Amino acid sequence: MFSDIGALELVTLVLLAVLIFGPEKLPKVIQDVSRFIRKVREFSDSAKQDIRSELGPEFKDFEFEDLNPKTFLRKQLAENEDLKELNELRSTFDLKKEMNEVADAVHGRESASASAPAATPAAVNGSGPDLLKKQDKPAADERPPYDADAT
């Protein structure tokens, strides 16, 4: 629970508690806080027991930690025997390769794995600008067009 609190933070908390409550009242405050924490734990344990008893015998192995999505997925994947199919599917799909092919198609370059270029409406009609073709860069002394609406 407090695994990330270092020694300096702990000393600071103790000094702050002594300054706020005083050395006379500090033992009483510590007892009250520990009693409150104990009652909250007892309440949560009894609520868990009530829920387990109401669910019935078919949920005897139910754990409240399984309600955490990460824990639930980890448990389901560990128990699942069909992971071979998932690994085969993962190995057949190469996301980086697919993204490179899409980028090549957008920039108008011929990718190594594409055997035929995709047909665009302009290429089919033979008219209109080829939007997939990379635009020529303007000359060094030529300024790019100014769009007043964009500023």
TrEMBL record:
InterPro entries, alphabetized: TatA/B/E, TatB
Record-linked Pfam families: TatA_B_E
Domain of life: Bacteria
Keyword Transferase appears in the UniProt entry: no
Biased composition (Low complexity): 111-123
Residue spans of biased composition, Basic and acidic residues class: 131-151
Chain intervals for the UniProt region annotation (Disordered): 104-151
Subunit structure comment from the entry: The Tat system comprises two distinct complexes: a TatABC complex, containing multiple copies of TatA, TatB and TatC subunits, and a separate TatA complex, containing only TatA subunits. Substrates initially bind to the TatABC complex, which probably triggers association of the separate TatA complex to form the active translocon.
Family: Belongs to the TatB family.
Protein name in UniProt: Sec-independent protein translocase protein TatB
Originating organism: Streptomyces roseicoloratus
